[in-house]
Amino acid sequence: MEKTDKKNNIKNLIISILIFTVIVFTAIIFSELFFGSREYSPSKLKNGKSNHQPKMMYSPKTTELEVYKIDEESSNSDSTFASDSNSGIQFYCKYNGIRHDFILDLPENTKDAPLILMLPGYGNSAESFRNTIQIHKEAVSRGYAVAYINGAKNPDDKTMAIGWRWDSTGKQHAKKNAKNSIHTENDTAFLIDIAYYLSDEYSFNKKRLFAVGFSNGGFMIHTLAMQASDVFCAYASLAGKMSGNIWNIRNKKNDLNFLQVTGEKDDVVPKNSDGTARHAKAPAIEDVMHYWAESSGLKTEATESIGNGSSLIKYSDTHRKKKVWHLIVKDGRHSWPVKNINGIDTNQLLLDFFDSAE
Questions:
Q1: pLDDT tens digits, residue range 2-50?
Q2: 312 contacts: CB under 8 Å, gap ≥ 6
Q3: What residues are paired with 89 via a beta bridge?
Q4: What pTM value is reported for the model?
Q5: Phi/psi of residue 290, each to 5°?
Q6: 355 backbone dihedrals φ, ψ, rounded to 5°
């Protein structure tokens, strides 16, 4: 009798172990199928009433990029967007633990559509930049997708204003902010990854990627062009300058399309024309544009008058398809030129430049 009981106990134990094993493996498979892997858990977005975890759209194993779509249910106080904003598709993302938000406007057909990344100036948000510039309105009608992207908070600025780390040489410098956390400086890598992510997600044409920046965003465009000249089809910097650090390690050769817009009286961008470059750490913008042209093999220089007395310098070469333009805005300051003041439709100029870029 005792032997029978022992056999039954062993049998029941084996059955219990097998059942437990099946339950564990089923739970693991279910978790992988419905939740996927996470490199880290992002903070939940809140809507003021309850916590809501939006669906994570992208988390590649090779980088720490996490992208979330912000919908009405997940619209919250943590988002940098206005709660009543209903235009464009709003996203929240983290890259190497650094927070970014962006707004995406799509054309009717996204397959093989070109994409423009729009980088606002220091302290300016993607939403306010979009509301002010509104390049997406004409761009979408031409078949472009447009993404307005927030920079990251600056731990060295007490106001924690958002901006671009345009002075980084791409060596993954690390800083410790006030909270003693590591702050990685590599916005070039982030912009490349977000451009490729959006291209994969919406079937955009990776050979037709463009980047535009104003002020601090324009500074970043020069850095991006130096460090990722083979990624974007064309670059446009408005009221931007190149970092002295980037200038000192500039490429000997390039092969790119670049448009620079400089105000004649811009007191932020160093210039030879007014002598401000003599005491600046950054190079004169005239030297920078000559460099972009010469290093891209463009030997011909022609100047035409546009708008209210502004000068458009065009560098080209009969044997090359690339082009470099430098628009010097008559009496322009550190601002985005507009039709009713400068006689220039800047948005149309940008899109025409991109349309013909190869």
A1: 555 556 666 676 777 777 666 655 554 444 444 333 332 333 333 222 2
A2: 303, 304, 305, 306, 325, 326, 327, 328
A3: 104
A4: 0.77
A5: -65, -35
A6: -55, -40
